[in-house]
Amino acid sequence: MAVGLLGTAASGLQAFQRGIAVAGHNISNVNTDGYSRQRIELGTRPPSFTGQGYIGNGVQVNSINRLFDQFTTDRLRDTTSTSAQYDTLFNYSSRLSNLLGDSKAGLGAGLETFFNSVQDLANNPSSVPVRQLVLSEADSLTGRIQGLDQQLSSMRDEINNGLGTVVNEINGITSAIADANRNILDATTQGAGQAPNDLLDKRDALVGKLSELVSVRTVEQSDGSLNVFVGSGQSLVTGFLASPLKITQNGFDVRRSEISIVSGGFAAEITDNLTGGKLGALLDFRDQSLNKAENALGRIAVTLSTEFNRQQNLGMDLDGQMGVDMFSFSQPLTSAHAANSGTGNVTTTFDSANIRDLTTSDYILGFDGTSYSLTRVSDGQAVTMTGAGTAANPFNAEGLNFVVSGTPVAGDRFQITPTRAGAPSMTLLISDPGDIAAAAPATLSEATNANGLPVNSGDGALQLQSVDGTFTPLVSGITFTYDAVAQQFNYAGDATGSFAYNPATDSGNSFTVAGMRFRISGTPATGDSFVAAANTSGSGDNTNALLLAGLQSAQTMENGNASFQDANGQLISDLGARTRSAEITSKAQASLKSQAQESRDALSGVNLDEEAANLIRFQQAYSAIAQVVTVANTTFQTLLSAVGR
Amino acid sequence: MRIGTLNMFRQGIGAIIDRQTDLFRTQQQLSSGKRINRPSDDPSGAAQLVGLSESLKVTRQYQRNIDSIRSRLELEDSSLAAVGDALQRARELTIQGLNDTNGPEERTGIAKEIRQILDEVKGLANRTDGTGEYLFAGFQGQTAPFTDNGAGVFSFVGDQGQRFVQVGAARQIADGDSGFDVFMKIPASGGGFEDVFTTLNKLANDLEANTPNPATLDQLDKAMNNITGIRATTGARQNAVDRQETVNVALISQLENTRSIVEDLDYAEAASRLNKQSVTLQAAQQAFIKVQNLNLFNFL
């Protein structure tokens, strides 16, 4: 009997020691990420049958369980992924919007200073120092635009490097998960079906780390191994096998990194399917913010250059020459997809006349075997093109002309990024201050005699307002002579014709002849004449400078609904809103993550007070069972001494 | 509900960091005096600021343009006043010369003085402004507009251009008049036109020939009327410039006001927010220390 008692006591000693060991293990891992607390499950040992009935044999350790719930763990993993995504997105977005929105270093201040210098030119069109200032301001405006683009470009490099790093990290983790699958299976087999708790925790922690990088889904197999899927069901880990991700080049643009999954030696591009985590944030930022910002900046550069050049070309410079282009910039980038099999070729140019229709989007021009169709990338919408695609009659849409040649094959595609290269390529072409065309190319004055005395007898007056693109420099000039009977002006010289003018109803109205728009007022007499001539030495004329300065507030963008500064404000507001939304979502996700962590830890987290209590509980039980050993020993000694007498 | 010890630690630290971030933002606002320190603070406000900043800069530029046009108009006005005074003097001399009490010598003396006036008026007509541009040359500012062949034939070689200056978003005002309108376009009695210089020259010639002609005096009156008329439009333009300046000043103050409403910080609100946030941070820190010290092991 005493032997049985000792056995019972020994079983207790052993079980409670285990209990203390488990509490110790829990305490040791209180700071281990992903650790699930473990609990010792005790049970009675099989009893022995005696004549009087079954008698208990003490305690045994049935199992050591980890307290784990798949649902709370999955929720924590999902919130971790989203939280990491928006954290990263917020970081990059705020850098971008702070850069472009800076009140001193941003584009806004550059535009203001430049146009102020053009206003000064209008006040003082013949002053060479003032003209020089316009050139310096134009130079620093292009410098500023290029500098901003440089920053965007280095962010792009950073994103590309970041993608490489994240892909490497993902590959490291997925192969560790595949290893963990093998180890867990081995341990389960060796442990006769008992779960290898710490290995399972370790694998869960790896999946948690992986979710910070990209959103994944997991399915546990019946043998205990975990399969991990990414995107729209591409398998990252199947049992012991991990399929690595790889950085590949975009079919249109070799500098653009895409993500592919390598399986069976074959790489498939899955960039568009990847969401969540740091990787999702990097891709989202690149496509939604960075590309758009660079396109928007480029669009301002292209439109400003085009409009400024156009007005320059309509004016006359200090040397009496028609104005030359002031800025140069690159035409749209067009690239054929690497997989195109035909010999088709596309050349894209800006449609200067409709430059206001430019968008910030990229385009895909596809060939379906019979015809070309254009798709706007930003919203995936088809865009209707006019024209035939020939050099004489190019396809035309949204401020762009497309000329196609060669023989494309059905399925061939071309990518057009119209304004991406606009900002980095914008440069100042003029270095001679005299080349700024501040004057109108023509003067319109009443006829005089050789000494400059007036000869007209009526009080009619013609005032030149502007010239348009159809104007050609005047050679011998145009003379307008009024016929009061027919109530019309006849004109002759570089252009010939007539138009009606009734002083009673038309006074103050504008008329256009030979590309010159002018206002007529008053009542001319028959024979009164007016002369349009080339404005060859009109150094004091600021007509065109005023028109150049007026471009600042002209609605030359967004289909004629926005000025340059409006477009800049829209960009800043758009990026600001994106940043703000990323920040708000990031905060909300952080709080959801913290809730998920809380509910996971409510079950799985180690609580030191609880472990202290467990220590006390097992220690007390251990002391008590130790007393049983003492009692058994004393009882045995009593018996021995009784027998020995 | 159970609470994991590590989670308690994490949440305590998390709360402290969040409070610190809030406090830092407020501190940043207080030190910059701005409510919007980055576009994400208020995206639509940031876009509004871009527009406001441009409007302010442009309106200030209009004020600069006004300074420039005002000095030009003043120069023109003082030149025209001098021309008017000279013509008035010529008129008085002519009336004096018409008096038959004068003999040929007296009239020759008066003619000499009128020739000086002619030179003076010619000098005024060929005057340059501060930048060396001829004031009355139209757009041909680099060339003296009035020439004289020495034999009493005067020519205008400038043009009829009139320069406008932008003084408001939709307001352009001419900063001068062409010499064509001031000195040339003076209707002659018998039809056609006669320039001021020819009129003065005729006066002198007639006096020298001892045949003063009252008709030439009429022509001089016409010239003076023309100058007076031009001065009136110059004065009207100066008034228009003054009015536009008042409008611009009001606009600038209104824009500044709007900018301040959009961008500037409400100091009282921010200061009390700072106060509240520092109390909250302190509370979070103290709570963290208190809770971290509570542990059963302390009693074992």
Task: Outline the secondary-structure elements.
The complex is a heterodimer of chains A (645) and B (300).
Chain A lengths: L1 H27 L9 E7 L3 E3 L2 E3 L3 E8 L3 H32 L5 H17 L4 H63 L6 H17 L2 E5 L5 E5 L3 E5 L2 E2 L2 E5 L7 E7 L2 E4 L7 H37 L13 E2 L4 E4 L8 E6 L12 E5 L4 E5 L5 E2 L11 E3 L2 E6 L7 E5 L4 H4 L1 E2 L13 E5 L14 E7 L10 E6 L4 E6 L3 E4 L2 H4 L3 E4 L2 E6 L7 E6 L8 H8 L13 H41 L3 H37 L1
Antiparallel strand pairs in A: 1-4, 2-3, 5-6, 6-7, 7-8, 9-10, 10-11, 12-21, 13-20, 14-19, 15-16, 15-20, 16-17, 18-19, 22-29, 23-28, 24-25, 24-29, 25-26, 27-28
Chain B lengths: L4 H28 L10 H56 L5 H22 L20 E3 L5 E3 L7 E5 L2 E4 L4 H6 L11 H13 L5 H50 L3 H27 L7
Antiparallel strand pairs in B: 1-2, 3-4
What does this structure look like?
The complex is a heterodimer of chains A (645) and B (300). Chain A is of the alpha+beta class and 645 residues long. Chain A folds into four domains: 2-67 and 606-644; 73-287 and 561-596, no CATH class; 331-420, no CATH class; 442-534, no CATH class. Chain A has eleven helices and 29 strands. Chain A has helices at residues 2-28, 70-101, 107-123, 128-190, 197-213, 277-313, 422-425, 503-506, 543-550, 564-604, 608-644, and strands at residues 38-44, 48-50, 53-55, 59-66, 216-220, 226-230, 234-238, 241-242, 245-249, 257-263, 266-269, 327-328, 333-336, 345-350, 363-367, 372-376, 382-383, 395-397, 400-405, 413-417, 427-428, 442-446, 461-467, 478-483, 488-493, 497-500, 510-513, 516-521, 529-534. Chain A has a five-stranded antiparallel beta sheet with strand order 13-20-15-16-17, with no helix packed on it. Chain A has a five-stranded antiparallel beta sheet with strand order 22-29-24-25-26, with no helix packed on it. In chain A, a hairpin with a 5-residue loop joins β16 (372-376) and β17. The longest helix of chain A has 63 residues, at 128-190. The mean pLDDT of chain A is 93. Chain B is mainly alpha-helical and 300 residues long. Chain B has a domain at 67-258: f41 fragment of flagellin, N-terminal domain, CATH 1.20.1330. Helices cover 67% and strands 5% of the residues of chain B. Chain B has seven helices and four strands; from the N terminus they run αααββββαααα. In chain B, strands 1-2 form a two-stranded antiparallel sheet. In chain B, a hairpin with a 5-residue loop joins β1 (146-148) and β2. In chain B, α1 runs antiparallel to α7 (267-293), α2 runs antiparallel to α3 and α3 (104-125) runs antiparallel to α5. The radius of gyration of chain B is 38 Å and the shape is rod-shaped. At the A-B interface, α2, α3, β22, α9 and α10 of A face α1, α2, β2 and β3 of B.
